[in-house]
């Protein structure tokens, strides 16, 4: 039987309650498949502050290093408390820091658009259509303006630098073409090559890689045109590859199509990192491994905290992505996605996707978790 160590970092707000539903689903998977999940909880974000005075304490780093994968909830505090030490820079210090810690470089942000929920999509019904579809945003996570130098050379000047190197772009280009090849064989790469030098290199690398994928319909799009196209005709897109900052923005745009942020899971793939020394044999070789991180795309929604009303589907999808990408458990991941689809099709809804007078059953967060387990 395979055993996997999972670091569970629920974080703040609704993180705890939605993570509990994902754990329920993982326990159900253990009953169905020959697998054991050793799930260990840790503190991150504002939740870590009272005990450690730090948003990503060393204790949590040690837990992450010992784990095969990280299931992350969400971090951040109420808007009106952002100046308090517990919440100031909380997202930056926890989510950006943990991505850096695992060497996260490729980020998958799928936006599943269910025809059953199309009335929640802010686009006109003739644009969103009456068929279900999914757009997958693949965001580069390790480079660009996020990780360049940020400074204030003097009181009236601010500086953010952006850089990309060829190997970093090659890595995401290969991954994105492979994803497109496995799906609808359409790939859009987003850049601003009419202005930015990093984008010119990005485009050059993607065009070179395109030659290895003759079956994939490949398109370059400037980011400003891409946002227009996405709103006017989203169905022309399937896989979209973006540099870090554009991926941040584009994935927020696509995140509104499913009708609720509560429907979007995500995966961030780590790079090989050294996590200690091999102690079982005498040669003390360094141990290195990949640790991937899975988190919902939505925020911590402090106003919903403790009310048992949040939608746990994003967290459950993230857990399914963990099974697929970290543990190669494709059948189990498929079965979770099928169970979610069935709950939607049979009219079960949390408040964010519930419409009055539609022959739907409104469920709490924990009831939604139970229903998905029942269908599993
Ligand atoms: C995201 C978020 C983060 C980012 C913030 C919280 C730093 O917006 O995951 O998209 O910009 O990457
Ligand atoms: Mg964002």
Structural commentary:
This protein starts with a strand and ends with a helix. α8 packs parallel to α9, α10 runs antiparallel to α11 and α11 packs across α12. The protein is globular. 37% of the residues lie in helices and 23% in strands. It folds into two domains: 223 residues, Isopropylmalate Dehydrogenase, CATH 3.40.718; 136 residues, Isopropylmalate Dehydrogenase. The chain has twelve helices and 16 strands. By secondary structure, it is α/β, with parallel strands linked by helices. The model has no long low-confidence stretch (mean pLDDT 96). A ten-stranded mixed β-sheet has the order 2-1-3-14-11-4-5-10-8-9, with helices on both faces. 3-isopropylmalic acid binds next to α4.
């Amino acid at each position: 039987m395979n055993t996997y160590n999972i670091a569970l970092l629920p974080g703040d707000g609704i993180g705890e309650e939605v993570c509990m539903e994902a754990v329920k689903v993982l326990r159900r998977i253990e009953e169905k498949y020959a697998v054991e999940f050793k799930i260990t909880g840790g503190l991150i974000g504002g939740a870590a502050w009272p005990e450690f005075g730090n948003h990503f304490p060393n204790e949590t780093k040690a837990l992450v290093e010992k784990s095969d994968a990280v299931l992350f909830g969400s971090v951040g505090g109420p808007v009106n408390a952002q100046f308090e030490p517990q919440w100031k820079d909380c997202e930056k210090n926890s989510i950006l820091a943990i991505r850096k810690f695992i060497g996260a470089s490729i980020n998958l942000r799928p936006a599943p658009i269910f025809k059953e929920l199309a009335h929640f999509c802010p686009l006109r019904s003739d644009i969103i259509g009456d068929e279900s579809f999914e757009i997958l945003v693949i965001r580069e996570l390790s480079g660009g303006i996020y990780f360049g130098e940020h400074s204030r050379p003097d009181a009236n000047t601010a500086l953010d630098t952006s850089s990309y190197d060829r190997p970093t772009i090659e890595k995401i280009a290969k991954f994105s073409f492979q994803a497109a090849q496995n799906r609808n064989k359409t790939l859009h790469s987003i850049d601003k090559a009419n202005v930015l030098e990093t984008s010119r290199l990005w485009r050059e690398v993607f065009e070179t890689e395109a030659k290895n994928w003759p079956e994939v319909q490949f398109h370059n799009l400037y980011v400003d045109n891409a946002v227009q196209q996405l709103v006017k005709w989203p169905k022309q897109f399937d896989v979209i590859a973006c540099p870090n900052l554009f991926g941040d923005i584009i994935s927020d745009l696509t995140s509104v199509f499913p009708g609720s942020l509560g429907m979007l899971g995500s995966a961030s793939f780590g790079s090989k990192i050294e996590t200690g020394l091999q102690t079982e044999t005498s040669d003390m070789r360094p141990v290195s491994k990949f640790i991937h991180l899975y988190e919902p795309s939505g925020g911590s929604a402090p106003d919903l905290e403790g009310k048992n009303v949040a939608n746990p589907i994003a967290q459950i999808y993230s857990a399914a992505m963990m099974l697929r990408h970290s543990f190669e458990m494709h059948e189990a991941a498929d079965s979770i996605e099928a169970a979610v689809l069935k709950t939607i099709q049979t009219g079960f809804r949390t408040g964010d996707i519930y419409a009055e007078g539609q022959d739907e059953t409104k469920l709490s967060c924990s009831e939604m978790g139970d229903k998905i387990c029942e269908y599993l």
